[in-house]
Amino acid sequence: AQTVTQSQPEMSVQEAETVTLSCTYDTSESDYYLFWYKQPPSRQMILVIRQEAYKQQNATENRFSVNFQKAAKSFSLKISDSQLGDAAMYFCAYPSFNKFYFGSGTKLNVKP
Amino acid sequence: DGGITQSPKYLFRKEGQNVTLSCEQNLNHDAMYWYRQDPGQGLRLIYYSQIVNDFQKGDIAEGYSVSREKKESFPLTVTSAQKNPTAFYLCASSIFSGVEQYFGPGTRLTVT
Questions:
Q1: Could you read off the pLDDT of B37-68 as tens digits, one per residue?
Q2: Selected residues 50-79 of chain B with any CB under 8 Å from a CB in chain A
Q3: Contacts of B69 (CB under 8 A, 6+ apart)
Q4: C-alpha distances in Å from residue A35, one per residue of A15, B19, B72
């Protein structure tokens, strides 16, 4: 069965510092996508970044980047120069067979 | 502007009543999804639809029903058979299955 695991229920980072959120997944597929979503207090789910498994290069979107380790089935999110607006729940997600599998989420606190 | 709308934002119902949550998208996406989110939890899939006039049960479909008569619309009915209906409901769509999903703002349903 497909599973997505986020082992850090909550993390804190100082403003302007860097933080890495972890995610592991389980799949037997060879080609797939991986996603990180952000859910701020408004509860709107916002797509942060996407990684295509067949691409060896790690995806980057401004201050957000991923460390994708396909063999280890690991997909971590790095947030550089953290800002107060980054405070939110972050969910890792993996689509398979017409469904999306979400992790349980990591709550990120940003300290001024 | 293209996007997904959910209405209303807050909904209150008495126990024993059926209630329908609206989800409309103008992104021309084929696939649509309904998720339930309980406090401090991740997202759980209720129903999904890959094409008009077709839909499949997700992981927690009991007590819910859907229809997909138009590409743009995917309403969710929470029936009186749903034992714990109070939750936050999110609708999402994607151009087709297996790629990034885009989410509506959600509906907070409270049943007393």
A1: 998 888 999 999 999 999 999 999 999 999 99
A2: 50, 56, 58
A3: B52, B53
A4: 24, 32, 24
